[in-house]
Every structure is written in structure tokens, then in C-alpha cells.
Design brief:
The protein has 290 residues and is of the alpha+beta class. It folds into three domains: 66 residues, Ubiquitin-like (UB roll) (Roll); 115 residues; 105 residues, Four Helix Bundle (Hemerythrin (Met), subunit A). The protein is built from nine helices and six strands. Strands 2-1-4-3 form a four-stranded mixed sheet. Strands 5-6 form a two-stranded antiparallel ribbon. Helix 2 packs across helix 3 and helix 6 runs antiparallel to helix 7. The termini are far apart.
Length: 290
């Protein structure tokens, strides 16, 4: 087996045939001495699908990507954020079905993984800013854990579960944005603020149409536009959180985002339309003045 680390050949010889998992463990033991961690690996020339227990004799080449602990934690955060989106969307779809109860047993492992991953990542990203309410996040995690013990739950409980997952998703999305924005030099932040203010005008022009589409049966079109607005608001929080005296504005943006996402998850399109028509319009005006 030829082993490549970050596209460079690694002078590493195996004295015996061992499972892939053990090979990776040996490489990690070597890498950690250099404060590096395995971010990803591939077996490009292997004809069969590899698992942890595929023998090294069956693998001709192993490509390993190493990175810092910071990069590893960020990769794990991105994976959790994506899975939260998948699980929340799936449960939201079930809420809109004709079922009176939702089977949860087949989702138990996934929900527990979400809780464990969130708790392990939280210390790296949680701050004392308005982006994070530790008590509310803990409440959401505990609710998911309690629900996870049940084999099936009512539609109402499922809606509450979706809301709890949404709370975690809002935080993980903000952590990702904050991580990315943290790479921006402080002297360049004002450039991004001006970009946000200019974008407010374009978004404002689309709000009336979105609100109307939510109430006349064109929900899919409206929701696609709203996803762009939620991403814009998330970017705005990440940027404004780097500025002094903007905590109140950040909190207001987060509150509007939370209300909008909850309305969409609950398929409450009338309330979502009201939020678009009034709250987001007021919010855009405030952002432009800030």
C-alpha cells in the first residue's frame, strides 16, 4: 500500500496485513505529534467499496488529508450543520403527512448523534455574544434527548422536535458564518458592511412578491427566495457581530430569523407572510440606517 499525506508520499511501511482502521490509527498517532489530525481519506484505486475492516493488502493507494485541530473541528461542524438540515427537513415533511403519529425508532441513532456532536463542538464555538443563548441551546438538546427515548410521537411533538433542531441549526449556521468572517481583517469589515447595506435594496424589492406567493399557492417559489434571505440575514449577523455596539441589532436579526424558520417548519405560511411583509421590511430599514 502506498500512503500519501496531503499529496506527498509518506515513508511508512506495514510489517503485516492489517485493517484500514488500524492503518489510519497508526497515521493519526504519527500526525498528532505534529499537532495534525486526519480530516479525510480516500482509496482512489480500490475496485471494491472500502470499510474500516478492508485489509491493507486490498488497497493499493491511500490518500490522507491532514489538518489542524481547528480545521478538524470546523469540518465536524459543517457535517453536523448539514445533517441537522437533512433531519429537520425530513421531520417537517412527515408533519405535513396524514399520519397521526410519527415513528421515531429509526431516527434514534441520528438524533443522539446530533446531541453528542453539538455538545462536543459547543465549547469551541460558544461565545457570550447574542449569537448564543446557552440555556436555550441546552433546553433544545435536552428536549431532543427526551423525545429520542420514545418509539413514536405525536405530530405536535414532532413540530416541537423540528423547532428544537432548528434552534441548534441556527447556532451551527451562525458558528460557520462567524468562523468564516473571523478570517476577514478588521480593517476590511467596513467593506462587507457596505455590501450588506446595498443588498438590502435588492431584497426589499422582492418582499411583496414573496409574501404574495406564500398565500396564493406558490409556496415552493417563495421558500426558495426566503432561503436566500435567511442566508443574507445570517451573513449580516456574522458581520455586525464584529462591530461594537451592534448586539441589539444582531439579536433582532436572530429573533426574526428564528420566527421565520419556525413558521416555515410548521407550514404556517400566513404567519411567514406577515413576517416577510412587516418584520423583515422593518429589519432591512434598520440595517440600512446602522
Amino acid at each position: 500500500m502506498d500512503i500519501y499525506v496531503n499529496n506527498e508520499s509518506l515513508n511508512f511501511e506495514l510489517s503485516q496485513v492489517i485493517p484500514l482502521k488500524e492503518v489510519l490509527n497508526h497515521v493519526q498517532e504519527w500526525a498528532v505529534k505534529k499537532d495534525l489530525y486526519i480530516l479525510d481519506y480516500k482509496t482512489p484505486n480500490t475496485k471494491v467499496e472500502t470499510t474500516d475492516y478492508t485489509l491493507s493488502s486490498e488497497i493499493s493507494r491511500l490518500d490522507i488529508e491532514l489538518g489542524t485541530q481547528k480545521e478538524l473541528v470546523f469540518d465536524n461542524l459543517v457535517e453536523l450543520n448539514s445533517y441537522l438540515d437533512t433531519m429537520g427537513s425530513h421531520l417537517a415533511t412527515l408533519c405535513q403527512s396524514s399520519q397521526s403519529e410519527i415513528i421515531l425508532s429509526d431516527k434514534a441513532d441520528g438524533l443522539m448523534w446530533i446531541c453528542d456532536s453539538f455538545i462536543s463542538l459547543q465549547p469551541y464555538f460558544l461565545t457570550d455574544s447574542v449569537l448564543d443563548n446557552e440555556d436555550e441551546l441546552l433546553k433544545a438538546v435536552n428536549y431532543i434527548k427526551e423525545i429520542d427515548k420514545l418509539k413514536q410521537i405525536s405530530v405536535t411533538d414532532t413540530i416541537n422536535l423540528v423547532a428544537a433542531l432548528g434552534s441548534l441549526k441556527l447556532s451551527t449556521s451562525q458558528w460557520i458564518k462567524s468562523f468564516e468572517v473571523a478570517q476577514i481583517k478588521q480593517e476590511d469589515i467596513s467593506i462587507y458592511v457596505e455590501k450588506i447595506k446595498k443588498e438590502c435594496k435588492n431584497i426589499g424589492l422582492s418582499l411583496d412578491k414573496i409574501a404574495t406567493n406564500l398565500t396564493i399557492g406558490k409556496q415552493a417559489e417563495a421558500i426558495l427566495e426566503l432561503e436566500k434571505i435567511i442566508e443574507f440575514l445570517s451573513d449580516s449577523v456574522a458581520i455586525f457581530s464584529r462591530l461594537p455596539n451592534k448586539k441589539a441589532l444582531c439579536q433582532k436579526i436572530i429573533d426574526v430569523m428564528s420566527s421565520l424558520m419556525l413558521s416555515l417548519d410548521n407550514a404556517d405560511l400566513i404567519n411567514a407572510a406577515d413576517i416577510v411583509d412587516f418584520d423583515i421590511k422593518d429589519l432591512l430599514a434598520e440595517i440600512k440606517k446602522s
